[in-house]
Design brief:
alpha+beta, globular, Nuclear Transport Factor 2, Chain: A, 6-stranded mixed sheet, single chain, 4 helices
């Protein structure tokens, strides 16, 4: 019940931002929230139809596969934090870099991940959509 309420509130927040034009920071947070509690309608608004979602192992997904994997339990994020974020914007393209630390329970197997993330957002009208994503594993020295 609480998860449904949270998902509904997050979707309403996202929709409000979507209708008024959104900042890149807000879009990154909406993506993070939807990785924790996927909402297909919200994901369809923030993900480009041309999305290429790259993983640290070199595996690439399109928008449909990424959404399917978030909603069917293939990816099950239980915690996500993003730090050291930087944003560069040039006209209709924004590049976001950050460190992502997360706890997952993918296919019922608990794990912790520590990644460097590169997000490329493209502005379509007033709205920013995630166009490209690539991650790289952080290797301890």
């Amino acid at each position: 019940m609480l998860k449904n309420l949270f998902t509904t509130l997050a979707f309403c927040f996202m929709l409000t931002i979507h209708l008024t034009g959104q900042s890149i920071e807000a879009q990154v947070e909406i993506l993070r929230q939807n990785m924790l509690n996927p909402n297909i309608s919200a994901l369809n608004l923030i993900l480009s139809p041309d999305l290429v979602y790259g993983h640290s192992n070199g595996h690439l997904e399109d928008k449909g596969t990424f959404i399917d994997n978030l909603t069917n339990g293939t990816y099950d994020f239980t915690e996500i934090s993003c730090t050291d974020q930087s944003i560069k914007i040039s006209k209709h393209i924004a590049v976001v870099r950050h460190t992502l630390k997360a706890k997952t329970n993918d296919k019922g197997i608990p794990a912790e991940i520590n990644l460097k993330i590169l997000l490329v957002w493209k502005k379509e009208g007033k709205n920013w959509q995630l166009w490209e994503r690539q991650s790289a594993k952080i290797v301890p020295h």
